[in-house]
Design a protein that fits this description.
The protein is built from 2 helices and no strands. By secondary structure, the protein is an all-alpha fold.
Length: 80
């Protein structure tokens, strides 16, 4: 038998896990500094980098559209 609070708790834990994974991805991407890569390295990695960027763009667009599809707005955080 599933109680409403128990189901909510499991769902909330899953959501927290997904948010933690998103934050970890943001942190990892924040550490990437392509401007520091040597030109030869950038040229050698350009195909993989392009594929990763296109994939990221698609995934971020999908998530944003799912949020907007529920009638919510995505807003930039206000800096303190």
């Amino acid at each position: 038998m599933c109680r409403a609070t128990g189901c909510y708790s499991l769902s909330y834990m899953r959501t927290n896990d997904e948010m933690a994974r998103l934050q970890a991805a943001v942190s990892a991407l924040g550490d990437v500094d392509v401007s520091a890569w040597p030109e030869d390295t950038l040229k050698a990695q350009l195909g993989d980098l392009s594929a990763a960027l296109v994939t990221l763009d698609g995934l971020l667009s999908r998530i944003a559209e799912e949020v907007r599809g529920r009638g919510l707005r995505i807003e930039e955080p206000v800096s303190a």
